[in-house]
Amino acid sequence: MIDPCTEFQTAIRAALIEDAEVSALVPAAQIRAGSTRPDKLPTIILAGPQTLHLGRASGGSYLTRVYIDLHIWALVDGEDIARRIGAAVSVALWDTPACEAIGIDDYTRPSFAFMRDPDPARAYCHGVGTVEGVIRWSV
After folding, report:
1. What total of structural domains would you count in the chain?
2. Which of 60, 88, 103, 126 suits 22 as a labelling partner, its CA being 20 to 30 A distant?
3. CATH code at 108?
């Protein structure tokens, strides 16, 4: 059975890894799904998938709106680096990512908010954005 969250997340990750600007800023191994605490920096973490099941579509398929949070973490001049990564991610995800396993019938580009760690001793910057799509999938 297809999981619309996993397939959409996989398509987003593939688009990020394949983009030269994103790859120049964040190694592919550090673009991952999982918890929002990074183990290496800089990193992009695809986390918190949420679903809203919309109903059935033609041909016995289903429609689900999927939201995926994109967490950008950076250190050492973190704010500037995080914003550069966010800009590269926005361009890489400007168009609907390609995916053969599902249909992406509607797509919303990510937008980001950035915040610095309130502890001045740490130079973390954390950006959060959400990308969403209406996914057409079959059992």
Report:
1. 1
2. 103
3. 3.30.2000.30
For residue 76, the model assigns a pLDDT of 65
Tell me how far apart the alpha carbons of residues 31 and 77 are, in angstroms, rounded to a whole number.
20
Q: 73-121 pLDDT, tens per residue?
A: 998 665 688 999 999 999 999 999 999 999 999 999 999 999 887 777 7
Cα separation, 6 vs 91, whole angstroms: 22
| E strand residue ranges, the chain | 31-33, 43-56, 62-74, 103-108, 112-116, 125-137
Number of other residues whose CB lies within 10 A of the CB of residue 119: 8
Q: What is the pLDDT of residues 20-76, one digit of tens each?
A: 999 999 999 999 999 877 888 999 999 989 999 999 998 899 999 999 999 999 986
Peptide bond into 118 cis (omega under 30): no
Q: Are 8 and 51 in contact (CB under 8 A)?
A: no
Cα–Cα distance for residue pair 109/95, rounded to 1 Å: 8
Residue 60's domain spans which residues?
4-137
Residues shown for the chain:
139
133: its two tokens = 């799509």
Tokens of 37: 């605490």
